Amino acid sequence: MRLYRAVLLRSFQSNTAYRAETVMKFFFSLLQILIQTSIWIALYGRDNVHSSSVGDVSLREMLTYTILGICVQIVVGNDIIWRLGSKIQSGEIASDLIKPIPFARFMFAESGGQTLFRIVFEMVPIVAFGFFAYGLLFPSAADLGLFLLCLLNGIALYYLMSFIVGLFAFWYMVYWHSGSLFHVVMSLFSGSMLPLWFFPESFIRVAQFLPFQLVFYGPISVFVGKTTFLETLRLVGMQFVWIAILSFGLKWVWSKAWRKLVIQGG
Amino acid sequence: MHGIRLYLRFVIIYLKTKIEYDHFFVFMDLVLNSIWPLVNLTMLWIMLDRFGQIDGWDFDQLMFLFNLSHMAYLVCAVIIWNPTREMQELVRSGGFDAYLIRPIHPLAHLIMRQFSHGHFFGLVVSVSILIYNVNRLQLDVTIGSVAWFLSIVIGGALIYSAYMLVCGTLSFWIVKTESVYELVVDNLRGITEFPLTIYNKTVKAILLFVVPYGFVNYVPASGMFFPESSPWPEVVRLLATPVLGAVLFGSALLFFRIGMKRYQSTGS
Fold first, then answer.
1. Are A70 and A33 in contact (CB under 8 A)?
2. Transmembrane residues, as ranges (chain B) (predicted)?
């Protein structure tokens, strides 16, 4: 545990070196909030509520969903596919493999440091801005607790998925292809751009069996108070099931992958 | 004329090198470069299916607005995206030296030695969307309207190229220009996928007067769909985009020339 904490803190520190980059990223997120909230305000027009598949959704709930979506993006997001891909392509992965620490966990701790940094310097200002500019809704303490649990599971899920996709670089070297494809699927099925409430029925029926919506749509719905207690329990259950499936999948892909490993020269 | 022939030669050689790769890679390049607009349009469709309209614009009109900016972007990206993106690395590593000793203008050479086949395929998709769109909206296709549309697309492409070139040229002063490039070229352009009237005054002013992407799609399209409510006189709606494009691109070229004078090689 101490080892992972050290990796995490070191990665946090190395992020402090890119100050201009952080300011830029914060600016991106603000711009994103501005665009998306403007779109929703214009879509609602003069109405204050709109019907959906989970009953009426008010504009304020929708704005909360949008801003929270951007925050969840900061918390769960990582660049594992790109990092893993370039390590595999360049052969640098060899030097990671000889470290006396499991590779997937090492990378997890490293990206954890990056996430922690982004939470402190990007997400906190954004939440503060959203609170004052749009009057974010805040849930009850119980819902907030459940939301945080779902979010933690979401981090694990997203990490497992991106790691598996990243490992595909062993077979298919052009990792930006697999990366973008993953992002396309993610934006369509996860509810990060648009809550599943507004999707057509048939689409929801497919999406709810996939793990993608458990990262964005699930936790945020809990926060906005659109799920009953029973549904929340079901959500958490599904998250655990998918975490189990994906961890197993990761082990399997990894066992196949490192046999494919070829390092040029040295 | 000589320039065009030279460019075609370069393009043919470039394409030959691409075909050397596994065909599947090239195929995926094409798919992934054109899939995002389709994803965005799907999202737009789902939203509009529920809500009906945004600020008076229905789905087909929004699709036209979206596609107009996208088409102009793709036209310019095929030609100038790679060169301006590369500039940061070329200046940092000193690779720009090679371009200074060729018998053609460095920028012309940068443009000629690549051809963004992914963006080109995106352009094919974009034209198909346009054809579908024109049918749905029952727009008049006459020589006049086609000429107008082409002048808007070319003007828009020049506006985008000008900002790409300026952001690339900044590499002569600043080491890392990636984030500025992304902000100006991608993120600000993303705003104009929706009618500018839905944003607050500051955003609107920036996109009309500082980084005038609004003139690429919003001003012409709103003039076309809602001529009575457009605050712009007709002559502006018809001519502003190409004129602005020519002026901005000319200034960007001048800026590039100033930047080039500052270039000091790495000396290795």
1. yes
2. 24-47, 62-82, 115-134, 146-175, 235-256
- Pull the structure tokens for residue A154: 């979401």
pLDDT digits (tens, 9 = 90+) for B177-222: 888 888 889 889 989 999 999 998 988 999 999 999 999 999 999 9
What residues of chain A lie within 8 A of the CB of B200, using their CB? Answer: 34, 38
Neighbours of A265 (CB within 10 A): 4
Q: How high is the pLDDT of residue A264?
A: 64
Are the C-beta atoms of B58 and B133 separated by less than 8 Å? no
Q: Could you give the C-alpha distances from B27 to A168, A178, B73, B241, B242, in angstroms and in order?
A: 18, 13, 21, 34, 34
Of B179, B180, B194, the CB nearest to A39: B194
Helix, strand, coil percentages in chain A from 3-state DSSP, rounded to 5: 75, 0, 20
Q: What tokens appear for A119 in the block?
A: 């939470």
- To the nearest whole Å, the CA of A4 is away from the closest chain B CA by 31
CA–CA gap between residue A168 and residue A85 (Å, rounded): 8
Q: Could you say which residues of chain A have pLDDT below 70?
A: 263-266
A80/A239 Cα distance (integer angstroms): 21
Alpha-carbon distance of A75 to B2, in angstroms, equals 54
Which of A25, A41, A43 shows the shortest C-beta gap to B47? A43
Residue B214: name the closest of B251, B188, B247 by CA: B188
Residue A264: count of CB within 10 angstroms of its CB: 6
- Which residue reads 């982004």 in tokens? A118
- Is B38 an interface residue toward A (CB < 8 Å)? no
Closest-CA distance, A28 to chain B, in angstroms, reads: 7
Torsion angles phi and psi, residue B38, rounded to 5: -70, -40
Vertex B77 angle, CA A189 and B199, to 5° = 60
Look up residue A198 and give its DSSP letter.
G
Q: Is A100 on the interface with B (CB under 8 A)?
A: no
The residue whose two tokens read 């769909």 is: B225
Which helix H or strand E contains A20, and what residues bound it? helix A19-44
Torsion angle, CA of A219/A222/A226/A232, rounded to 10 degrees? 100
Q: Residue B201 burial by CB count (10 A; 0-12/13-18/19+): exposed, middle or buried? A: exposed
The token pair at A149 is 């649990």
Q: Residue B57's pLDDT is what? A: 92
Closest CA–CA distance from residue A43 to any residue of chain B (Å) = 5
Per-residue pLDDT tens for B73-116? 999 999 999 889 888 888 888 888 888 888 888 888 888 888 88
Smallest CA-to-CA distance from B67 within B152, B225, B195, B193 is with B193
Please say whether the beta carbons of B44 and B66 come within 8 A: yes
